[in-house]
Amino acid sequence: MNRSRKVRRHRVVLRPKVRRRRLAAAAAVSALLVLGGAAVLTLRHISRNFSGLPGFWARLGPRIESVTVAGAPEELTREIEAYLSGEGGAAVSSRVAELGERFTCLRTVRVSRDWRGRSARVDVALRRALGAVRRRGRPIGFLDETGGVFAAAPALYPEARLALDVEDADSSQLRALAGGLSVLGGAEDLPSPVERVRFRSPYEGWEVFLADGTRVLWGDFRWTREKLSRLQEALADARRSSLDEPAGASLGGQRSPFRDGDAIIADLRYFEDGRVLLRPVAGGRS
Q: Which of 18, 41, 88, 242 is buried most deeply by CB count within 10 Å?
């Protein structure tokens, strides 16, 4: 008869010296993990709340002794170089980090550094100006394609001749204006170029002035391409009727209200209801 053999278990007891060593190692690892987590959380907090972080990090790097600026007109290049080399105690690297805030006309700023020569090259690109912005008759800057308004010397944008009277338009309405101008600016079938745009009110929207005296009560800038197409058709019909019929002659049982050379007001505010209203400007050109 087989009897099961009883298994003997041996208990291993660590020496006090070895036990203390293992406990110390485990405590060190735990401390490192806690410190690492705290460092990550601290950096995240600083990044969110410390707006001067780029300049802070820039001060840690090797000092920049000379800077070359490329991509800007000569006048602006001189201004940027004067700012970067100006006195006041701030390091050049710190000033480079703040260029976008100092010169709001800059769309991008890219810096490449020569670490051995302690020099840097700053490549910049300007924001595109759709027009010159005025608020209650006072110039406040230029409108870019995103609807943002930025300050810049008028000499930097001689081609931005379109006057934009934004009055009380808010940021969402300015973004819509920028989108509308991107369409109107490329329209080749308008009787003349767009010369001025004025914000009338949140209810009435925008009014567009053409160089030949035509005024368009545009409303908001939804359905911009469709409105433009219908406006072109309506204006062409009005011009045709003024040429085909003598002044005061009957057209389809009604007298044509348009005469050759008259400026026209077109009302597109009721476009979504299927209505486009035209009338001559009283006294000819407005």
A: 242
Q: What is the 3-state secondary structure (H, E, C) of 195-247?
A: EEEEEEECCCEEEEEECCCCEEEEECCCCHHHHHHHHHHHHHHHHHHHHHCCC
In-domain check, residue 53: no
Domain count for the chain: 2
Whole-angstrom Cα Rg for the chain = 35
More confident residue, 194 or 94: 194
Give dist(CA 58, CA 91) in Å, integer. 9
Q: Which of 114, 115, 118, 148 is nearest to 133 (CA)?
A: 148
- Tokens read off for 157: 């944008």
Kindly state whether residues 136 and 227 are assigned to the same domain.
Answer: yes
What would the pLDDT profile of 127-144 be if each residue is shown by its tens digit? 999 999 999 999 999 999
The pLDDT value recorded for residue 54 is 47
Which of the listed residues 95, 126, 157 is the one where a domain comes to its end? 126
What CATH number did the domain enclosing 68 receive?
3.10.20.310
Residues 144 and 260 in one domain: yes
Q: If you ran DSSP here, which 8-state letter would residue 282 be given?
A: T
Q: pTM of the full predicted structure?
A: 0.69
Strand 163-165 to strand 194-201: parallel, antiparallel, or no bridges (unpaired)? parallel
Alpha carbons 102 and 80: distance in angstroms, whole number: 9
- β-pairing, 163-165 vs 131-135, is parallel
> Same domain for 264 and 155?
yes
Statement to judge: residues 145 and 87 lie in one domain: no
Distance (Å, whole) CA 48 – CA 50: 6
pLDDT value of residue 5? 57
C-alpha 206/C-alpha 219 separation (Å) is 5
